[in-house]
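Sample entry (265 residues):
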Amino acid sequence: MTTQSFADLGVPAPLVRVLAERGITEPFPIQSATLPDALAGRDVLGRGKTGSGKTLAFSLPLVAKLAGRRGRPSRPAGLVLAPTRELATQITAVLQPMAAASGLSVTTIFGGVSQSRQVSALRSGVDIVVACPGRLEDLMRQKVISLDDVTTTVLDEADHMADLGFLPGVTRILAATPAGGQRLLFSATLDNGVDKLVKRFLSNPVLHSVDEVTEAPAAMTHHVFHVGGVQQKKDLVHRLASGTGRRILFMRTKHQARKLAKQLT
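Predicted structure, serialized as tokens:
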């Protein structure tokens, strides 16, 4: 924590009050580092781990910049891209109280559910859209949403989006926003293509890093298994998952995780 207050960093008084009502009075390091530049309209590259306070670091300048704007049907002025619906929902929950205090509206867009409610919200007029890339591109193709009025774009957990294979879609989405808009990108790392996004879409970005990039512990042992086919892979997974000790298995999708859990139990 720091000794600076949000007001010291330039956060408008109405937003400071909203934070205080929620017991948030002292900024975290990532917020102290990035807020002055983000509030000044600069492009910012923030590097920090999940849980470091990134959501407020981009939500405050986003709302401050758009305060008082009247939402236009299907033409938001603020855009936040997130890799998962869970994260998008969390971001919206943080944004909504501040947006409401500033006369702004927020809606969330993600797949896996009917798009009718999302389309209705867009057409009724919205200022800030928090979206997952897949569903957003679907709505863009249907001409349900235009990004021509976007003045600030946020990419949260860009490294996670890269891991999930979303960067081609993110690139197309960013290319559809005005070239002169402000871009705020937050990521734990700058590899897997994230650096290409930075070079193409951020203009003279200010880099703020609050977490040192750490290497894997030297004592960690890695094992690589080469398997000949699908059945061999299944057999190996079952062998690795069996036994009495604790094990963590990472799957590509929730469906695969549930399916494997059912098989193992």
